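HUMAN: Mind sharing a backbone?

ASSISTANT:
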Amino acid sequence: MEAITLAGIRETPLSVDEVLAAVQDPRAGGTAFFIGTVRDHDHGRGVARLAYSAHPSAGERMREVMEKVVADISGDGRPVRRVAALHRVGELEIGDTAVVVAAAAGHREEAFEACRRLIDDIKAEVPIWKHQTFGDGAAEWVGAEG
């Protein structure tokens, strides 16, 4: 799909500039971004370490999710011009960028809607799992419930 300009799962640090460049379009009047970073806590507990793992199909599944978001929103006659998404895997430090999604559309409403759907649907449907270790040594997997 032409609107998907960048989609990937990477072990290297993510570049917000790369994602911005991927969604630039002279037909777009609005561009919305979401940047997810590793925080130092979760549910009131201090996080010491965090790692993301992905199923081998995660990249393909991410692209499918992106295609559906673009089709759903554009199908209402409100074209989403370009979308991009990158997710990091491997060991991450507190403050590292874990995911970047962006959407460019003719107007801000569609850009915001597409961006929100992208991050929500990627988190819900792409097989990427987070393993976090807390300050007390306890650990848990997040997103591996199924």
Notes: The radius of gyration is 16 Å. Strands lie at 4-10, 30-37, 41-42, 45-54, 80-88, 90-92, 97-105, 128-134, 139-142. Residues 108-125 form the longest helix (18 residues).
